[in-house]
Design brief:
disordered N terminus, 145 residues, six-stranded antiparallel beta sheet, alpha+beta, four-stranded antiparallel beta sheet, 10 strands, 3 helices
Length: 145
């Protein structure tokens, strides 16, 4: 009998899903949208005090110096966004701007995003991003008391 209980427990553990790589939204201290998976950690923020959006992508392989940075969104609403106004500390690449409509649309309405420079690239899944992106939009546009 004990053997069957142990086997059932072991089978139940084996059937549990693996680590989920979810998109998460938090409203404080700034509006934040984050996602982590093996290829990269992505964080999008909006700070009401500065009125600036930022996206930071920490890549497992790092970000060598590059003159341009782009994000390609693949799925039902494909788009490519590029800039030369990015910063990199080697591991993390960051872009800051006063408007992020195209980035948020890309995250919300597509299935994957590939961040890339001339010499490095990472692709992340956008599965489950829609609701957290919608909450992020509401946070970013909410009146501040």
């Amino acid at each position: 009998m004990r053997y069957l209980s142990t086997m059932r427990f072991a089978l139940m553990i084996c059937l549990l899903p693996g680590v989920a790589h979810a998109w998460d939204f938090t409203p404080t201290p700034v509006c934040s949208l984050s996602h982590s998976e093996n290829a990269a950690d992505v964080r999008v923020t909006y700070d009401h005090s500065s009125r600036l959006y930022a996206i930071s992508i920490k890549a497992a392989g790092g970000w060598p110096a590059a003159s341009a940075f782009s994000i390609r969104f693949d799925g039902p609403a494909p788009n490519v966004i590029s800039t030369t106004r990015h910063q990199s500390d080697g591991q993390t690449l960051t872009v800051t701007d006063a408007g992020f409509g195209n980035v948020l649309n890309g995250l919300e309405f597509n299935t994957s995003a590939t961040a890339f420079t001339q010499t490095a690239a990472v692709t992340v899944s956008l599965d489950g991003a829609r609701a957290p992106v919608q909450a992020f939009r509401a946070c970013a546009t909410a009146p501040v008391a």
